[in-house]
């Protein structure tokens, strides 16, 4: 893999001709700095102090000429700088693009690639140019000042050299620490960025699973870490200040204190003045721009370029990827959409489902047998709930009433886009109705804290929420610190022991992108199973599973103490349920599967039984029709639509 030093050296070697020309014009640029002290000394000693102001002015005019030559040098230097820097930037851009494309082709889509292309490459280009100018400026300005001082007199050069060398030595010693701090800063900045992106992109699932406080704490911890690193980085400013004080300012009092001694060495006041000019106009600014330039731009250059080269190499497959974000960071690209478009086509039918037809009763909503007495009480209650996505939108749900007793197993079916997920969101407290009330476990959802909601219900949405972190963190996410044997028992109950073993055990690191959509769903279901909530809402949460696995998991959830609401992906789910809620845009009907078949031709059509019941059953969510323009009337106790 190319290193920062390797790439920089190669770039400088390739542009050798331009660098020599740059050196030539840089020499012209520092002419005023090189001659300023000498010409000032002559102007004072042999002009003004000797009573010949004309001679003094002539020396100063020469200095003016040198300034003009210096200006031309500056002008040409900047033009040449572009010839050195732009090819470097192009080369870097090529590497980053190649890496990103190779990564994407290898299935490793990288959200940070855009930031690298648009931001970090430009940052490296700018800091590279700045660094070249700083180092060049220092070498020439410092060299010119040293030559000038030596041309005045060796003792003067000695008085200046001691503190300057002390300052430079201190800077050289502190540089590795500065690099380390800068690297720490960049890494923690990236960690914070990842945490924020993860939290924002996963906010729906975070809210749904009641993990808002936990994720807030986690992002807050990244912010605190970033603040700590920034404070440490700021302490390096003190070291830079000391360097400048030693190398840039100490020579001035040193020269003034040494003046009597210098005069005894038969140096005139003009020479001392000239030396002061070299220090204040040459050494001091050169050291200042070196220290500030290297500390700011140079460190950013080295650290950012290092990250870019490593990322490009890892995407190319030539080395490891940069370290994973710390757990529990969800990978932004990890959640695979599992909406009707991808899940509806999976098919499946009642005949293929072992549990088909065994759990439903017969009769209308009013005549249904009550749920087991031991679970009596209301698990879920909606009263006149109306919800629309915007103030001028048609309501998705309009005056919906629904009563789900504790221990019930309800399946919600309806055409795609009819409002099933919206209903799930309202029950989970993720969405809030414009009017009406929602109660879960006898308590209102409105006004409940995320923690209270998480204790009452768990919603597994279509996008299974699995994040980069250990298997354990993914499983005990809703009940942190669960003992292994509790997880073992739940996995065995859901038939997932084999999957956990295959994934490497509880301490194995999971990368969501390396899991299949079905595996992600099974992990999310295991997490939901372990949650303390009595109400489980599965919103097409099994759509990537084969019918047998889906039946096994749904059966297990139906047997779990509490209440189960399933937004169905296959008709087999409706056959397993105790009751079925049909949303169809004209009526919301609640009955058993058989009852709905008898009562509603729309239900027969939806589940694919046809008028004579000869058509094989199909997935229930594949019917694209939805009467959005007609508001959905009331639910289990049908009311007329407004
Ligand atoms: N965030 C939103 N903003 C505006 N409209 C939305 C939003 N989410 C859903 N809708 C609309 O609300 C209606 C109901 O959507 P919902 O997702 O609840 O349907 P669904 O029955 O779950 O569909 P599917 O079976 O395809 O998942 C749809 O017409 C949809 O376009």
TrEMBL record:
The chain crosses the membrane at residues 22-44, 56-73, 128-150, 156-179, 241-263. Residues 26-285 form the ABC transmembrane type-1 domain. The keyword Transmembrane applies. The keyword Membrane applies. InterPro entries: AAA+_ATPase (IPR003593), ABC1_TM_dom (IPR011527), ABC1_TM_sf (IPR036640), ABC_transporter-like_ATP-bd (IPR003439), P-loop_NTPase (IPR027417), Type_1_exporter (IPR039421). Keywords: ATP-binding, Membrane, Nucleotide-binding, Transmembrane, Transmembrane helix. It holds the Pfam family ABC_tran. This is ATP-binding cassette, subfamily C.
């Amino acid at each position: 893999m190319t290193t920062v030093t390797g790439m920089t050296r190669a770039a400088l070697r390739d542009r050798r001709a331009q660098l020599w020309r740059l050196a030539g014009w840089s020499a012209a640029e520092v002419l005023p700095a090189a001659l300023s002290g000498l010409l000032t000394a002559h102007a004072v000693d042999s002009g003004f102090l000797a009573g010949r102001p004309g001679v003094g002015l002539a020396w100063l005019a020469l200095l003016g000429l040198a300034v003009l030559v210096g200006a031309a040098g500056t002008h040409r230097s900047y033009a040449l700088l572009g010839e050195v820097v732009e090819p470097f930037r192009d080369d870097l851009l090529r590497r980053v693009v190649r890496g990103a494309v190779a990564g994407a082709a290898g299935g490793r889509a990288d959200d940070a690639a855009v930031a690298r292309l648009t931001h970090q490459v430009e940052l490296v280009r700018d800091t590279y140019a700045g660094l070249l100018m700083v180092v060049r400026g220092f070498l020439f300005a410092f060299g010119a000042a040293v030559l000038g001082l030596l041309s005045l007199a060796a003792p003067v050069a000695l008085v200046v050299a001691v503190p300057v060398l002390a300052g430079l030595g201190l800077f050289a010693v502190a540089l590795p620490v500065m690099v380390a701090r800068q690297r720490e800063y960049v890494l923690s900045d990236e960690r914070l960025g990842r945490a924020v992106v993860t939290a924002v992109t996963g906010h729906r699932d975070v809210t749904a699973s009641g993990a808002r406080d936990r994720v807030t704490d986690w992002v807050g911890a990244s912010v605190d870490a970033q603040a700590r690193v920034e404070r440490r980085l700021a302490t390096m400013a003190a070291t830079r200040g000391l360097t400048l004080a030693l190398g840039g300012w100490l020579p001035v009092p040193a020269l003034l204190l040494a003046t009597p001694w210098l005069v005894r060495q038969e140096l005139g006041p003009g020479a001392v003045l000239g030396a002061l000019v070299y220090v204040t106009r040459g050494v001091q600014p050169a050291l200042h721009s070196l220290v500030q330039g290297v500390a700011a731009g140079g460190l950013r250059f080295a650290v950012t370029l290092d990250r870019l080269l490593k990322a490009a190499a890892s995407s190319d497959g030539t080395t490891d990827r940069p370290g994973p974000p710390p757990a529990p960071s969800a990978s932004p690209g990890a959640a695979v959409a599992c909406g009707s478009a991808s899940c509806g086509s999976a098919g499946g039918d009642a005949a293929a489902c072992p549990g088909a037809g065994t759990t439903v009763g017969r009769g209308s909503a009013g005549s249904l047998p009550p749920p087991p007495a031991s679970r009596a009480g209301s698990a879920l209650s909606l009263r006149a709930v109306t919800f629309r996505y915007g103030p001028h939108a048609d309501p998705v749900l309009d005056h919906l009433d629904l009563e789900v007793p504790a221990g019930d197993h309800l399946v919600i079916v309806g055409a795609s886009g009819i409002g099933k997920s919206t209903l799930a969101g309202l029950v989970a407290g993720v969405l809030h109705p414009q009017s009406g009330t929602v109660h879960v476990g006898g308590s209102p959802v409105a006004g409940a804290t995320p923690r209270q909601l998480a204790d009452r219900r768990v919603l597994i949405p279509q996008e299974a929420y699995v994040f980069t972190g250990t298997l354990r963190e993914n499983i005990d996410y809703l009940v942190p610190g669960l003992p292994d044997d509790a997880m073992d028992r739940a996995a065995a109950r859901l038939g997932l022991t084999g999957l956990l073993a295959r994934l490497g055990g509880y301490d194995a690191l999971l990368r969501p992108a390396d899991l299949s959509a079905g595996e992600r769903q099974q992990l999310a279901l295991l997490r939901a199973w372990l949650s303390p909530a009595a109400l489980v809402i599965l919103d097409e949460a099994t759509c990537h599973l084969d019918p047998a696995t889906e039946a096994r998991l749904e059966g297990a959830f139906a047997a779990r103490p509490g209440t189960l609401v399933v937004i169905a992906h296959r008709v087999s789910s409706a056959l397993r349920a105790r009751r079925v809620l049909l949303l169809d845009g004209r009526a919301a009907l609640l009955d058993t599967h058989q009852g709905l078949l008898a009562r509603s031709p729309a239900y027969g059509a939806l589940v694919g039984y046809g008028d004579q019941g000869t058509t094989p059953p199909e997935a229930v969510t594949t019917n694209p029709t939805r009467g959005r323009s007609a508001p959905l009337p009331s639910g289990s106790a049908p009311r007329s639509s407004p």
